[in-house]
Amino acid sequence: MKVRFLKSDSLYILKDTIKDNVENYFSPNTFWIKDVTSDNNNFIDFKCEFPDFDLIISDNPEKNDLENIKLLYSNMQKLTDSQASDERLWAGLCHDAFWEYMQKRWPVEKASDKIKYIKKNYFFAHGEKRSLMTNGLARLWWLGRLTYDETNHNNPYELTEYLSKDFNGKGFPLFGSNFSNNRFLLRCFLYNIKLYEENNNINLSRTQFLEMIKSMNMWSGKLMIDSLDEEILNKKIVNRLHYVVNNYK
């Protein structure tokens, strides 16, 4: 699969003229881009090639997020974190290879504030880290990147599947946390919560989950928790879980 990213100039023009091109986002194709930019060559081929694949498009696309995370991340796993943080890449894919998917999953015509909606889902509208979780395609890759566990030989997507129960309420706040880029801490955090829920036949509420994130953030600021022995860290997380479950609803 040939992946193309937007040229910097084209990205700037498209992003700067959204208000004049809202109706183009209802179009079945992106031929209109060359007219907006006055350039026939708005895309540049990415140096790496990837396996051919398509994202699932259905009448209820939100329900396909988990499978599409697996599809996108598995097939584009060779991206570096730096490459996968580049707006030109994801905006390019949103306006090129996965245009049909974007229109189905993030239909602009249904949005009340269409300009804001396009900026958020088809480009980067916020600071880089937050935008990686709001862009319609970057979010799929990064949810895979941060939860995929290559050491879990039975199911490397076990944590992805766990978070898929509530990506919006639990996944997004988690990836905005101070410790989420540390995959060791993230795995300890999620595996312990998942196991605690299974052993106690409960599901943490969003409030309880957020309290656990706050605790990990606080420990990260005061302790070098990534240098703690894993057994000690697991115990610390479980003890805090017990307190949170019994004191927060």
Describe this structure in words.
- The chain has 13 helices and two strands, in the order E-H-H-E-H-H-H-H-H-H-H-H-H-H-H.
- The termini are far apart.
- It folds into two domains: 4-155, no CATH class; 177-249.
- The chain has a two-stranded antiparallel sheet with strand order 1-2.
- Helix 3 (65-75) packs across helix 8 and helix 11 (183-200) packs across helix 13.
- By secondary structure, the chain is mostly helical.
Could you list the spans in which at least 5 consecutive residues all have pLDDT below 50?
none
Q: Provide the helix percentage.
A: 40-55%
Q: Biggest sheet: strands, sense, closure?
A: 2 strands, antiparallel
Strand arrangement within the widest β-sheet reads 1-2
- Distance from N terminus to C terminus (CA atoms, Å) equals 47 Å
pLDDT average, as an integer?
A: 94
Shape: elongated
Q: How many individual domains?
A: 2
Total helical segments: 13
Order of helices and strands: EHHEHHHHHHHHHHH
- CA-based gyration radius: 20 Å
SS content category: mainly alpha
DSSP strand count: 2
Instruction: Tell me the fraction of residues in β-strands, as a range.
Output: under 5%
SSE order and pairing:
Layout: E1 4-6, H1 8-16, H2 33-37, E2 43-45, H3 65-75, H4 87-94, H5 99-105, H6 114-122, H7 128-134, H8 138-147, H9 158-163, H10 167-175, H11 183-200, H12 206-222, H13 230-247
Antiparallel strand pairs: 1-2
